[in-house]
Amino acid sequence: MSANAGVVERVNPHPYYRISALAKGFLRMFRAFLPLVIVIVVNALIQGLLTLGNPTPVLSSGRFVVGALVSLVALWVTMAWITAAGLAAAKGRAHFSEIRRELQGKYWRYIAWTAVVGILAMIGWMLFEIPGLIVLALTPFVAFATLDAEANPFVVNFRVIGRRFIRWLITVIIVGLLSVVLLLLSAVNTFFVGDAFGAFFAWLILGIIFAWWFSAFALIYCSAMNPVPPAGASTGAAVDAGGEVA
């Protein structure tokens, strides 16, 4: 009989990130460095090129409508790729094959569920800015649940929040404060740089920031839904003789 018989195995509920999900997420982001760089740079180029000539933002302008659609598709693909990269990095390897596997057969599902979140946030934003921000703060795990093939991503999203409430709250507050700083910096970028290069630079920085944040939220999501990391996934946590994650 094992020497540990009769002893309840204790598992650290946060082996994915230990103290800080944002700090660990920043490091995990580099597991998917090349795939992320490619998609973020391509999206930034598309968004920058679409601003050439300062197209008039009116629905009667064919150029504006086509440009807006291209911009939306590019952004959607980029965010799907960033979400999948964060999820893959949280679980283990995050090369092109792993990221494609996370997305395989789930593009339309991802579009549908994230569209629901976007519409709700837009409605809240139009009514009053704060409700729109609250919607985004309350739904950071919907995209991950969608790629994880959960039947109802909204239910799973709130389940994750319930299981990791303090961690979710701290992370959302920090992300909110950083968003204010980004908003101020974007105003400076628009004033001093502007034009296509300004748009390219802004989307490049935003892509990197989003990749970092999504990597952090992916770690929180996985810690709630899969408390014990998959076999072979390097989490930086060691298991002691008593079974407790150190």
Number of spatially distinct domains = 1
Structural class: mainly alpha
Task: Please bin the fraction of helical residues.
Answer: 55-70%
Largest sheet: none
Note the total helix count.
10
CA-based gyration radius? 20 Å
Which regions contain 5 or more consecutive residues with pLDDT less than 50?
1-13, 234-246
Distance between the ends: 24 Å
Q: Beta-sheet strand percentage?
A: under 5%
Secondary-structure element sequence? HHHHHHHHHH
Coarse morphology: globular
Blueprint of the fold:
Layout: H1 21-29, H2 33-49, H3 62-91, H4 96-103, H5 107-127, H6 129-138, H7 142-147, H8 153-163, H9 165-192, H10 195-225
Helix pairs in contact: 1-10, 2-3, 2-10, 3-4, 3-10, 5-6, 8-9, 8-10, 9-10
Q: Can you characterise this structure?
A:
This protein has 246 residues and is mainly α. It has one domain (21-112, 139-225). The protein contains 10 helices and no strands. The two termini are 24 Å apart.
List its salient traits:
single chain, 246 residues, disordered N terminus, 10 helices, mainly alpha
Quick overview of this protein structure:
70% of the residues lie in helices and 0% in strands.
